[in-house]
Write a structure and sequence with these properties.
- The chain is of the alpha/beta class and 276 residues long.
- The chain has a single domain, classed as Rossmann fold (3-Layer(aba) Sandwich).
- 51% of the residues lie in helices and 12% in strands.
- The protein has helices spanning 13-24, 36-49, 63-77, 100-128, 149-169, 203-217, 223-235, 247-258, 261-271; strands spanning 4-8, 28-33, 54-57, 82-85, 131-136, 174-179, 242-243.
- Strand 1 (4-8), helix 1 and strand 2 form a beta-alpha-beta unit.
- Helix 1 packs parallel to helix 2 (36-49), helix 1 (13-24) packs across helix 7 (223-235) and helix 4 (100-128) runs parallel beside helix 5.
- The N and C termini lie far apart (57 Å).
Length: 276
């Protein structure tokens, strides 16, 4: 018997591929995204694959809409096995030049968005004494990268929230897991890579960082590859707490555990071509 899986941010990228893989394996997908066109085309694709699915166009910041969606899902399926919080936006800027209103929006979407979808479905999982909550974090949720201070803060927050939540829900049979990709070959980074103004003291290093990041993305895992890794976490009876998509994430996280901070910093600065 297939799972009932809720996915946020499923109109494009990894989320879309996960939704299609879930449907192909006989699972029911209940998901939403702000991208109405992406949701419409995904509906057609899932209909062709077969099975029963529920897709809506919802903004993750619209909490009344999320509550309504939760009620729709539970009325239709009775319960949910897994919730995958996949929605998120990037943020690139020297910290000194950050637009704090835009930063607040990033934190609202990435952190409170994950909190809202988890909070919506925990009660039914708790009553059933079963369920999985999976959050899309990032390598920068444990290893901060320069020029990504706000994005790093949001992913550190997601990681901390899930690690804390684990203790609270474990007695009710609810498991939690984190997905920690470094880079995936999508348009995610390109959408946020904007050079600082010409008079910015950070412009040259930011340019070198962007060029290096663009170079790394060319050989990064593809969305289908990443989706297959995520599928393994969804399908696992006892998923690992931390789950990486690629070797680079695993390697950097391993180094982070053992090397002195000064050496770790030197490796990161050299790796991203931003040494002064």
């Amino acid at each position: 018997m297939g799972q009932i899986v809720v996915i946020t941010g499923c109109a494009d990228g990894m989320g879309r591929h996960v939704a299609k893989m879930l449907a192909a394996d006989g699972n029911s997908v209940a998901g939403f995204d702000l991208d109405a066109g992406g949701i419409a085309s995904l509906k057609k694709e899932l209909a062709e694959i077969g099975g029963d699915h529920l897709l809506e166009t919802i903004n993750i910041t619209d909490r009344p809409a999320i509550t309504k969606f939760r009620d729709q899902v539970l009325a239709r399926y009775g319960y949910v096995d897994t919730v995958l919080s996949n929605v998120g936006i990037g943020f690139f800027s020297p910290f000194e030049e950050v637009d704090l209103e835009k930063a607040l929006q990033c934190l609202e979407i990435n952190v409170i968005g994950a909190a809202s979808i988890f909070q919506a479905f925990i009660p039914s999982m708790r009553e059933r004494r079963s369920g999985k909550l999976i959050a899309m974090s990032s390598l920068v949720g444990r290893i901060p990268f320069p020029f990504e201070s706000i994005y790093s803060a949001s992913k550190f927050a997601v990681t901390g929230m899930v690690l804390s939540l684990k203790y609270e829900v474990a007695p009710f049979g609810i498991q939690v897991a984190l997905i920690e990709p470094a880079q995936v070959s999508t348009t995610f980074a390109a959408k946020i890579h904007v050079l600082p103004p010409e008079n910015s003291v950070y412009r040259d290093r930011a340019r070198r960082f962007i060029e290096r990041d663009d170079e790394l993305i060319k050989t990064a895992p593809t969305p289908p590859f990443a989706a297959r890794k995520i599928m393994k976490v969804i399908e696992a009876k006892k998923p690992a707490l931390f789950n990486q998509i690629d070797f680079m994430s695993s390697f950097f996280l391993w180094l982070n555990q053992f090397l002195p901070r000064s050496l770790r910093d030197a490796i990161l600065v050299n790796h991203m071509h931003i040494k002064v």
